[in-house]
Amino acid sequence: MADSLARLGALAENPVVRTLATAFAEAGFDLAVVGGPVRDALLGRPTHDLDFTTNARPDDILRIVKPISTTQWDIGREFGTIGAKVPSPDGPSEQVEITTYRADAYDGVTRKPVVSFGDDIEGDLVRRDFTVNAMAFLVPQQKLVDPTGGVEDLLIGVLRTPTTPEVSFGDDPLRMLRAARFSAQLGFRIEERTLAAMSELRSTLSIVSPERIQSELIRLLQSDDPVRGIRVLVETGLVDEFLPEVSALRLEIDEHHHHKDVYEHSLTALEQAIALEHARHPDEPADAVLRLAVLLHDIGKPRTRKLEAGGVVSFHHHDVVGSRLARKRLQALRFDKESTDAVAKLIELHLRFFGYSEGAWTDSAVRRYVRDAGDQLERLHILTRADVTTRNKRKAGRLAAAYDDIETRIETLREQEEIDAIRPELDGNEVQRILGIAPGREVGEAYRFLLELRLDEGLIGPEAAEQRLRDWWAARG
Fold this sequence. Notes:
- By secondary structure, the protein is of the alpha+beta class.
- The chain has helices at residues 2-12, 15-26, 36-43, 58-65, 121-126, 150-156, 165-171, 174-186, 192-200, 210-221, 226-236, 244-247, 262-280, 288-296, 301-304, 318-332, 337-349, 363-373, 377-386, 393-416, 428-435, 441-457, 462-475, and strands at 31-34, 50-54, 71-73, 81-88, 91-100, 105-106, 113-114, 136-138, 143-145, 158-159, 189-190, 306-307, 313-314.
- It has 23 helices and 13 strands.
- Helix 1 packs across helix 3 (36-43), helix 13 (262-280) runs antiparallel to helix 14 and helix 22 (441-457) crosses helix 23.
- The model has no long low-confidence stretch (mean pLDDT 90).
- This is Poly(A) polymerase I.
- Its cofactor is Mg(2+).
């Protein structure tokens, strides 16, 4: 505990914190670092965004920060929040948010708060989501304010609401998803009554906008252990309110037909994909699109499962069906088009490699693999490798070696030709000149012929491509 308090003291020595603390004290107002930064400092985790709370009203906050900041924004003024970029003498400027003590009530229908400013820091803290986030560190006094037992919950690793979970989740149902996310992010268990309330109140998530749910889902997927949070969402039934395809992966096992547990396979694949992501791209941020694609890659299986004779179970075309289901679901959650297209493409292509393991592909097949994956090729590499969850070491080794081979062949072709941007060696204007035709359908057909030629045979040179085009044109009569 002494180490934790020392880390809080270091937080108070942050130059930006000192600057703000001095300015607010001179103006006669309280100021406290609040929420996540306090929690993370006590846990010894790195702190990123600085959030503050104060008894100053928004107009006063803006007046105080203007002389000591380079930029200010008041988009959250009606909720009591003023943002600013405060320069630091020891490093780059830091972006901060400062919010007036709140004593909100919620309308219970749209989840929009009826904003009411308060004068008491403890009243502000009690209205927050979890006790571990309901702590404040007054500066410059360096006094910890913890009215709900957040420190004790940090020590035992538990998530609990400051008030009754029914009241807290009734105020904002999104807090139930935040419980799953913080469980994954911090490795904490959720207190029993809080967990039970999440199951009982799951239907109230319907009043939360798809955009807010999407944002929370992304943050969960970007955590160090999203599988832990996903299990919470499935076990409480919360996932059925916005992503029912995940819980549907828990297929019933027929006593006469046996197949891999699709739900557990998907979670194992996600864990393996994260390990590969860290190994291949150690300095890059967590890839939420990749992780979402891995989680959803088999959601077409429940729709396509067929019990065959002899205890065989088939899932024909689950890649195509799953791609359509994912696209529809992500659109409903208001994911952007780029992310939606990427996830749908990865799911549709995730089985393509397994034909390679049956026997080496031609160069033409490898080119098509790269062409079809496009800018998702690296994610497809990770997804395909992570999809191998067999306990049969010989089979796993054979598949890994086969994928090593295909990646090596892709690199070899990259060195020989422009495999990542495959296009014909003659463009549309050259086609028109050579064949003496005007723009139209026939130019498109000729271009497609040349593209297939490029995929099949690689680079053959413009002169050879022109002769092959003339031969094709002549054969058409």
